[in-house]
Design a protein that fits this description.
It is a single chain. The protein has one domain: Rossmann fold (3-Layer(aba) Sandwich), CATH 3.40.50. It has nine helices and six strands; from the N terminus they run ααβαβαβαβαβααβα. Strands 1-6-5-2-4-3 form a six-stranded parallel beta sheet, sandwiched between helices.
Length: 197
């Protein structure tokens, strides 16, 4: 068994993907995310962090619900977004969860309309998510899980204020920070916007 007490359609997808037993850090962080508390997940590259994110979010949201996003995930660039979207495709294939990935290369009006038609999981760069929120007025009141993936690449000097703006707009949701290291900018987000036990 990969992990205990997972949503059955997710378990089926994990079994079919022949995913091996999780490494201890991956297992510990999936369990921590399941608990609902804020989590800082720091590990080396290529240690299954994207898989852990997808499994945790799918297990929490389970199936589509209404039209507004319930999980928002910030990624550093299009490539990382596509990699994460592929993880959701693999492990969420037996659920009805709807994933939308937002990039700067697409018209913001088209992306806004697609999100309005129904999105459970919204993935995007910090600049595009801010544009969708500030300019297009996407509804983020339903967001239950906010994740910054590759946080040391996302939270740069150029992006710090935009990351903080999103955090301030989501005061009551679970916040998860995933990366390979903690620097001063990452630490500031943790200190100001996360409740770590």
């Amino acid at each position: 068994m990969f992990l205990k007490r997972l949503y059955q359609p997710l378990e089926r997808a994990i079994t079919e993907s022949h995913l091996e037993e999780p490494i201890s850090k991956q297992k510990d962080n999936i369990s921590a995310i399941k608990s609902g508390r804020d989590v800082v997940y720091i590990d080396k590259e290529e240690q299954g962090k994207s898989t852990a994110i997808a499994i945790s979010v799918i297990n929490k949201l389970k199936e589509e619900f209404e039209d507004v996003p319930r999980a928002m995930i910030i990624v550093p660039d299009k490539e990382e977004g596509e990699k994460l979207e592929e993880c959701f495709s693999i492990y969420g294939k037996y659920t009805s969860l709807r994933v939308h990935t937002a990039y700067e290369t697409r018209l913001i009006e088209d992306q806004r309309d697609e999100i309005y038609f129904g999105t459970d999981i919204l993935i995007g760069t910090v600049k595009q998510i801010n544009k969708l929120y500030a300019i297009s007025g996407i509804n983020i009141t339903g967001v239950k899980i906010f994740i910054i993936d590759n946080s040391d690449k996302v939270i740069t000097d150029a992006n710090q204020s935009e990351v903080e703006r999103i955090c301030e707009s989501l005061p009551k949701c679970q916040k998860i920070l995933v990366g390979t290291k903690i620097n001063s900018r990452v630490e500031r987000i943790i200190d100001q916007h996360m409740l770590i036990y």
